[in-house]
Predict the 3D structure of the following.
Amino acid sequence: MTRKRRRLTLIAVAGVVLAFATGLILYASSDRLTLFNMPSDLAAKDIPAGTRIRLGGLVAEGSVDKSTDGNVRFDVTDGAATVPVAYRGILPDLFSEGQGVVAEGLVGADGVFSADTVFAKHDEQYMPREIVDGLKEQGVWQHDEPPAPSS
């Protein structure tokens, strides 16, 4: 075998090993690549209690219940399913019913999502693509046109 042929064989073997390692890494982390879970995903995936996830959707109309001690309870919906959320702290200024929200926290054994961080946007047009696609699938999305550019 010539030097050139050995070098090409070594490069080919290294490429195969690298491709195999990359494939294993992607396969192992495939469940963690989803950045957001919709409420209907929680039931479909049967996520165990105590798992840390991000929950995204719309704040259900009439579901926000703020107490004087800083605890807030609200529901997140995607049109097909609704998940109750418990949060302690100050909500973002743009948080309101019917608007997009992403909450980070733990799935509770009782079905209540315990959020420790809440992100809110003033318009669903600026929601992550995964949440928009999920809302469109459920028939909840009502904004097909992009917002007009502001001057």
